[in-house]
Amino acid sequence: MSILAKVSDERVANVQCTDDSLIVDLMDGRTISVPLAWYPRLHSATPEQRDNWEIAGGGYGIHWPDIDEDLSTEGLLRGAPAPRAG
Questions:
Q1: Residue ranges of the alpha helices (H) in 20-63?
Q2: One Pfam family from the UniProt entry (predicted)?
Q3: Three-class secondary structure of residue 82 per DSSP
């Protein structure tokens, strides 16, 4: 019986925003693509603001300083949209 080891590196390698999608490349070669509409701050930001991102949280997060938005690879992999304002 063989045991398969989980080999993954969920740290951020690159981030790209289109008019409709947030696309995050991970260090292990996977790409996550989610609707930009899930993240209202990113959706309403200018392309320049979306392009100004930095890796945060030891590589497991993304921060957009111009709009004070933070996302984690864990949340993106779970398919978790931004919480709705209540």
A1: 40-44, 47-51
A2: DUF2442
A3: coil
Q: How many CB atoms lie within 10 A of CB 29?
A: 9
> C-alpha angle with apex 24: 66 to 33, nearest 5 degrees?
110
Q: Are 73 and 26 in contact (CB under 8 A)?
A: yes
Looking at 3.30.2020.40, 1.10.1040.10, 3.40.50.450, 3.30.450.20, the CATH number of the domain 12-78 comes to 3.30.2020.40
Per-residue pLDDT of the chain (86 residues; tens, 9 = 90+): 455 556 789 999 999 999 999 999 999 999 999 999 999 999 999 999 999 999 999 999 999 999 999 999 999 999 988 877 65
Q: Is 62 exposed, middle or buried (CB count within 10 Å of its CB: 0-12, 13-18, 19+)?
A: buried
Q: Supply the pTM of this predicted model.
A: 0.87
